[in-house]
Amino acid sequence: MAAAGCACILTACSDSSIEPIEDCSLDGRKTFVGEIMTDFYLWYDRVPVVDPATVESPEALLQQLTFRELDHWSGMQRQAERQEFFDQGRFQGLGYTLGQDPNGGLRISWVHEGSAAGRAGLDRGALILGVNGRAIADLTSEELGTELAQEIVVHQIQELDGRVHDVELAQGDVDITSVKGATVLDTPNGPVGYLMFTTFVLPGEDELKLAFATFRARGVQQLVIDLRYNGGGLLRTAALLGSLIDTEAAGQPLIIETYNQRHPELNRVRPMFETEEGVAASRVVFLTTGRTASASEQVINGLRPYLEVDIVGSRTLGKPVGADSWNHCEYSISPITFHSLNAEGVGDYFNGIEPACEVQDDLLHELGDPEEAQLAAALQILDGQPCGSVEKRAPVLGPALGLASFPKGPLPELPGWY
């Protein structure tokens, strides 16, 4: 009944022992939510007293029962949508993420190839001047979100070469591209393997193995793993990534999952394991931003007891917890149920993991380009140069910048995809 073990930007899930009562009435669904939250929820003793009769829906009840000081992730969704995302690596949308350049411009940060955006040829660095005939600078964040949720979205785009044109995209299936930019970079200190990993989902496991098989064949022992937009995913996939990075730690704990005092029997260790594609990395640099979360953070934290780990970028989101998922009627409820620690018992990073070398995301260079600011800093660190030696050069922006800027008011986090 429970979904396979996982961790993601909204939830993290694992096996559970409670069996749902299939009472799919409104009251039945709310009763089930209440039972889970007062028993298995990590902060069960912080759950407020709420009369379910005064709450209009199970989703609203779940939100009222969460410990909001630390929990920003417990949620519900339809089983079919959840399965499609984690098992098939697919969701509905346009297929890109957004970021902000140094001048406040709204740019595409990366694109899933198997999406409307990918098929239209959009790529990292494209500046969005307007959507559906409305200038970005004239939109509030809420208005922008509304425009991007339309069935058909017409984007006015300025490419890095200055060319301006319209791109019409329709909402539809997006096949997640899990590994982007995998390459081996030749450096004076030997080959360095680089890849961006976007999402911990099942289809991404084969992509990871293929990339690391190439690293192994090229004798790579130093890695740059780009998790700057990775909000999480399956913990089984997280264990695979850790195992591929450090083959010498096979059998050692990557993540220790600790449940509330009512269910210590659920506490467990998620170890690394032997894999023929892995490398025995001597050093790894992770690239991060505020969108780096959950399983991504747990891999970073989990590897620190075993090898030299550096972080370049900006502070991560701060989600050292995960969730179990219970299917009930047509829905999956995924409340936070466990705290994740590494082998040294470290896992209190609710304020995020700080980088040793702070470097902003450089949207004006391709991923994997040694001139891209975060990757350039990582390569200098691997070359033995201190963070302070990394040149903080301003990227050169294309012509006509200033026609677009971030919408009025804060843009809603933008950790997800459009």
Write up this protein.
The strands form seven sheets. Strands 12-13-14-17-18-23 form a six-stranded mixed β-sheet, sandwiched between helices. Strands 8-7-9-10 form a four-stranded antiparallel β-sheet, with helices on one face. The radius of gyration is 22 Å and the shape is globular. Helix 6 (203-217) runs parallel beside helix 7 and helix 7 runs parallel beside helix 8. The relative contact order is 0.19. A hairpin with an 8-residue loop joins strand 15 (253-259) and strand 16 (268-271). By secondary structure, it is α+β, with helices and mostly antiparallel strands. It starts with 5 loop residues before the first strand and ends in a 36-residue tail after the last helix. It has nine helices and 23 strands. It has helices at 26-37, 58-65, 79-88, 116-119, 141-148, 203-217, 235-245, 295-303, 373-382; strands at 6-7, 12-13, 75-78, 90-93, 96-100, 106-111, 127-131, 134-135, 152-158, 164-170, 172-175, 179-187, 190-197, 222-226, 253-259, 268-271, 283-288, 308-313, 321-323, 326-328, 331-334, 336-341, 357-358. Residues 1-17 and 392-418 have low confidence and may be disordered. The longest helix has 15 residues, at 203-217.
SSE layout and pairings?
Layout: E1 6-7, E2 12-13, H1 26-37, H2 58-65, E3 75-78, H3 79-88, E4 90-93, E5 96-100, E6 106-111, H4 116-119, E7 127-131, E8 134-135, H5 141-148, E9 152-158, E10 164-170, E11 172-175, E12 179-187, E13 190-197, H6 203-217, E14 222-226, H7 235-245, E15 253-259, E16 268-271, E17 283-288, H8 295-303, E18 308-313, E19 321-323, E20 326-328, E21 331-334, E22 336-341, E23 357-358, H9 373-382
Parallel strand pairs: 13-14, 14-17, 17-18, 18-23
Antiparallel strand pairs: 1-2, 3-21, 4-11, 5-6, 7-8, 7-9, 9-10, 12-13, 15-16, 15-22, 19-22, 20-21
Helix pairs in contact: 1-2, 6-7, 7-8
